[in-house]
Structures are given as C-alpha cells and as structure tokens.
Design a protein that fits this description.
Elements (H helix, E strand, L loop, with lengths): L3 E10 L2 E11 L4 E5 L6 H8 L7 E6 L2 E2 L5 H7 L1 E4 L11 H11 L4 H14 L15 H12 L6 E5 L7 H16 L3 E5 L3 H7 L2 E6 L2 E7 H6 L1 H8 L1 H8 L2
Parallel strand pairs: 3-8, 3-9, 6-7, 7-8
Antiparallel strand pairs: 1-2, 1-4, 4-5, 9-10
Helix pairs in contact: 3-4, 3-5, 5-6, 9-10
The chain binds adenosine-5'-triphosphate and magnesium ion (MG).
The site of adenosine-5'-triphosphate (ATP) has 11 residues, from strand 2 and helix 1.
Length: 245
C-alpha cells in the first residue's frame, strides 16, 4: 500500500483552480520529485497535504486513513512535515537552541535533544556557527538549519518546497547529500524543485504538474522526455523539435 494516496485534490482561489483534480501516490521510502512550470500548483498542493490550506474536494490518505481536514499541528504529530519555500527559523535564538527547542516540542527529552542537535549540526556542517543567532547565518545556512529542525525526529513523510532555491552551490551539495542519505535510510520525501539536474540525480520517480493537473507520472527519465512535459515548459515547437532528435 502507498504511504500517501492523494486523490482528486481540488483547491480554488476565487475562479482560479490552483490544484485541479490532482492525484498521485507516494510509496513508502521513496524520494518522489514534484516538478512543473511556475504557477502549476505544486506549493498549493503541499499546503493542502500539510494542512496549511483546506482543499475544496478530494481525499488524502496516510497509511490508508484519511488526513484531509487536519491542521498542521495534528499532521506534524502524525509525521507529515513541511518545509517552506521561505525559510522559517527563530532568528534570535542560536542555531543549536533552534534545534533543541524543536526536539523538545516533538517529544524528545533534554539529553536526547542535545545529542541529536549536535549530531545534525555536524552533519549539516553548521558546528562552527552553532552558537550564533540564526539571524546572523547566511540564507543557505538558515535553510540547512531548517532541515535540521525538520529531522530532529524523523517524520513519516517530509515535504520539501524548493530547498535549493538561491542556496550557494556548496550548501546545495550538503543539502542534497543529506536528503540522499536520509532517503537511503528509509525516509520518504516529496521534493519540489525547478533544479532538473538535482531531480534527475535524486529522484527515481517524479510527477509533473501543469495548470493544477498531473501531466505525467513515472520514472524521472520518462517524465522529462514526455512531449507533454516538454511542451508545458518550453512550448509546442520545442516538443516537436525534441521528437526529431
Ligand atoms: N493564496 C493565494 N491566493 C490566490 N492565488 C494563489 C494563492 N496561492 C497561489 N495562488 C495561485 O495559484 C496558482 C498556483 O500557485 P502555486 O504557488 O501553487 O504554484 P507553484 O507550482 O508552486 O509555482 P512556483 O514554481 O512558482 O513556486 C498560481 O496561479 C498562483 O498565482
Ligand atoms: Mg511554489
């Protein structure tokens, strides 16, 4: 059985169908890529999955049980964890305290939380700045810190919205290495990214959305070569040219 089944989700903003009957499934332990041109509904769908937006219709099942309508706090407790396109950390707390607080909030005791925070800071190459306020860190370091916060207690499924956007290439590598190792250890992800080389590198399977609908779903190789996907990104002519290559 799929870990998460997303069926016919619809989310309207006034007359705009931001998500227009999207269905997909996320298998246990997979790193599913979610791609699509700007405005295709990826962030809106993640917002529905994490309980930050209410869907107008459709269903979402986690382990076969409906989770649609639950709020972000309840969903975090069930292990559905969301990272935002805009980084969210406590700027006036040290990097270390940011992680410790998350650990405590997620049910770890103090020694567990300290140990885990230390280990994650090391893995994310943040040890040298662990006692600086998060607000003093670079954008990329704050993003890495947010990663750490999300994995203080490994979630059932982690929803990542463009984690690599505007991040220095060295940190991008730290981040993608982190995602890969977690996934190899069994962590399930949905990864939204416009960075196709990273999607190809990390995600064996992906879903492409366009105008709120699922345009293609399958192996990343097949999805990226599908004429409908090329057309959505580049227009009809590019898709025809690709056919002749
Ligand atoms: N709160 C909102 N109110 C009104 N319209 C919205 C809102 N959020 C998103 N939209 C619209 O819904 C559509 C889908 O937006 P969404 O942010 O989900 O796309 P996206 O695939 O994440 O795009 P990007 O790749 O640029 O991040 C867009 O047309 C967007 O303008
Ligand atoms: Mg988005």
């Amino acid at each position: 059985m799929a870990l998460m089944q997303i069926q016919n989700i619809e989310k309207r903003f006034g007359g705009l169908r931001a998500v227009d009957g999207a269905s997909m499934e996320v298998r246990q332990g997979e790193l599913l890529g979610l791609i699509g041109p700007n405005g295709s509904g990826k962030t809106t769908l993640l917002n529905v999955l994490s309980g930050h937006l209410a869907a107008d219709s459709g269903s979402v099942l986690l382990d076969g049980k409906s989770i649609l309508g639950l709020g972000p706090t309840q969903l975090t407790r069930l292990g559905v964890l969301r990272m935002f396109q805009m980084t969210r950390v406590f700027n006036r707390m040290s990097a270390f305290d940011n992680l410790v607080v998350c650990g405590l909030a997620l049910g770890l005791n103090e020694p567990q939380s300290y140990a885990r925070a230390t280990q994650l800071l090391e893995e994310l190459k943040l040890t040298p700045v662990m006692y600086l306020d998060a607000g003093q860190l670079s954008g990329g370091q704050r993003k890495l810190l947010e990663f750490g916060a999300c994995f203080m207690v490994p979630p059932r499924i982690a929803l990542l919205d463009e984690p690599f956007a505007a991040v220095h290439p060295i940190m991008k590598e730290t981040m993608s290495g982190f995602i890969r190792r977690r996934n190899e250890a069994g962590q399930t992800f949905i990864l939204v990214s416009h960075d196709m080389p990273v999607i190809v590198d990390l995600c064996p399977r992906c879903v492409c959305m366009n105008a709120g609908k699922v345009l293609a779903e399958g192996t990343t190789h097949d999805v990226l070569r599908s004429a409908a996907v090329i057309e959505a990104y580049l227009g009809e002519e590019a898709a025809e040219e690709q056919d002749h290559v």
